[in-house]
């Protein structure tokens, strides 16, 4: 659940270490650490042979693998071409990182070739998986050893925020399902606001000031760093048909509404249900923190001139939190500002246990977070670092990003959350879980607010029927490159 230790093995397991201070991160980000990287040497390490770059480009543009392969299959007919030492493709979210996105894209194209750098507004990750990787696999199947070696060695660098990294990781999971291995591991240049995925794997928490020199070192680390495993979690929401929800990008409608049959559902179910599913890598939350995030996102969309970068985003977010009643909630306030105990029934499957167990929701808790990483809300550590005696007493185990467990904690009022965020105290520990089932019933509440990896939404609730949120681990790991 946070920064993995370096390993000499190709695939290492991430383990918890103390988060770096922002000062150290800033120094690293400014490019004041490390040796100079020769531009031409780096280009030779990264660049694929020209015929492969063109074949991938044409395959994606035409959405026709066979035509591209037919055009370029003679590119290595003499067998003289060899794969580069560290073939790589880069996805750039040019809308992230303020004014630096387009400049970063241009710089990367100079360092490794235009055809290996994709702007996400032009090429979606699934298009690269289907047509770009598909082209390499087709050429390899025809006996092109250079294409095969390139496919086997390939790594991916994502320049964007946590949402962008999750988008790419989600597209790569299709390779597992289709048996198209190996799956390329992912490195990060952080361009978002929180950048918790980036922090967790040693890539820092902010876009570096001296970025032009730092980019070369990032590219070198991306092709040489050890590979670490990361759990990913599938979320299924089932609600009464007819309820209108505006889901975020990460949630998609699905016809598969089957909940785990090992847990009996109390009460009646409606005749028809609407279901949405998605995958998260960092956290899922319900309650006041998601409500604040939802309002902030709408404010930013309505007045984009207010949010010009990570620092201004955080200032506006902090100010908006104060207006939402999290810090001062009188007893007669709107029901939506009270605790979650009256609307949520929570069951979990604990470590090495196949049976569901009901977990009481503390009445003071106004936000519940299920956390996968050990970095939350721009590098905070709300779970803390519990001592071994405490873990044993509570039946917990030490947290890791690939342990198949989520840490579930609660936040009370805004003051409690503030002390947790500055790490003066830990959050309210609720459980560790290998699977979670939340049953949500409206009562006086008309809506609940939820978010998944920073994407919030308003979840309508019914007085008559429950909505269900079920979270299970995806049966294979995502792969990340350790940037330490």
From TrEMBL:
SUPFAM superfamilies: NAD kinase/diacylglycerol kinase-like (SSF111331). Coiled coil: none annotated. The keyword Kinase applies. Residues 83-238 form the DAGKc domain. Gene3D superfamilies: 2.60.200.40, Probable inorganic polyphosphate/atp-NAD kinase, domain 1. Keywords: ATP-binding, Kinase, Nucleotide-binding, Plant defense, Stress response, Transferase. GO terms for molecular function: ATP binding; ATP-dependent diacylglycerol kinase activity. It catalyses: a 1,2-diacyl-sn-glycerol + ATP = a 1,2-diacyl-sn-glycero-3-phosphate + ADP + H(+). It comes from the Eukaryota. Its EC number is 2.7.1.107. One of its GO terms (cellular component) is membrane. GO terms for biological process: defense response; phospholipase C-activating G protein-coupled receptor signaling pathway. The keyword DNA-binding does not apply. InterPro entries: ATP-NAD_kinase_N, DGK, Diacylglycerol_kin_accessory, Diacylglycerol_kinase_cat_dom, Diacylglycerol_kinase_pln, NAD/diacylglycerol_kinase_sf. It is an enzyme of class 2 (transferase). Monomer. Belongs to the eukaryotic diacylglycerol kinase family. Phosphorylates the second messenger diacylglycerol (DAG) to generate phosphatidic acid (PA), another important signaling molecule. PA is required for plant development and responses to abiotic stress and pathogen attack. This is Diacylglycerol kinase. It comes from Salix viminalis. The lineage of its organism: Eukaryota, Viridiplantae, Streptophyta, Embryophyta, Tracheophyta.
